[in-house]
Amino acid sequence: MDGTLLTSRGKIAKSTKKAIEALHNKGIFCGISTARTPASVAHILKDLPFDLFITCNGQLVYTKERMIYAKPFEQKALDEIIGYADRYSRQMILCAQTHTQGSWTMRFSQSGALLRFARFIPYWFSIRPMKRILQKYSPNRRKQRYANLAILDEPIYQCVMLSAEYETEKLIAALPHCDIKRSNPYSVDLVPKGSSKLVGLHFLSAHLDIKLEEVMVFGDHLNDIEILQGAGVGVAMGNASTKTKQIADYVTQSNDQEGIVTALKYFQLMNE
Questions:
Q1: Under DSSP, is residue 10 helix (H, G, I), strand (E, B) or coil?
Q2: Of 107, 119, 111, 106, nearest to 163 (Cα)?
Q3: pLDDT by residue (tens digit) across 229-254?
Q4: Exposure check for the chain: N or C terminus, fewer CB within 10 A?
C-alpha cells in the first residue's frame, strides 16, 4: 500500500480509484498485499471494491467473505523475539488479527502521518543515534516488558521492531524461527519462518483457481521483491528501491504520477 497504492500524501489518487472500479466491473479481481494489519487497512479501503487481502506480510489472507489462510507464530519463535526485545531494550509491537500492543513509539511510527514523513528522510540518515536515545529513555528497559502483555493470549501474526539495516545479520542469528522483512531502513517486520506475501498469494490463487501467471502485482520496496518475481507480471513503481526495479518486468511512473494507471494502460487492461 504505502508507496504503491497510496501517494506520498497517504491518499489514493482519484485516477487509481476509478481504475480499480473499472477493473472490478470487468470481473478482474483486485486486492492488496501489505505489511499492515487488517485493522490498519480497513478504513483506508472501505469505499473501494477490493476483493482480496494479504496482510501482515502474508500471514493473514482473506476475502470479504472468509479467512483463507492464517499463520501465527509458534511459541518457540515468540519466545525468541520477546527474549531479544527484553534483552536489548528494543522498541516493538506485536500484531494480533484485530489489534496491536507494545511500544507506544512503534505504534505511533506505524501511523499514516509518520509513514508519509518517513518517505522524505534521506536513505543515508543514520539511525544509530536515534536508536541509542530511544533505548536509553525507553520504558522498555523494564524487565519482562513484553512477556507480560495481554495480547500474548491471542495468536500473534507479526512483530514490528526498531532495527537498522546494519543489524540484519545479528537478527537472523538470534531469531532462527523467524523471517525478517524490511520495508524501510529503520524497522523490521518479523514473521513466522517460511512466510511471505508470495506464500499468501499462492493460497489466494488456489482459492480462486487461477494461475500465478495470470496475476499482476505492483510494489515498491524490498518486501515486495519475492511476490513481484513470483507473479506473472511484476510492476515496480517509479519510486521503488533500485533492487525492486531491477527484478521487475516493468517499471512504471511513481505513486505520485499515476503509476498504477500508467501500467494498466501499458498492458492494455485500461483504455487510454
A1: coil
A2: 106
A3: 999 999 999 999 999 999 999 999 99
A4: C
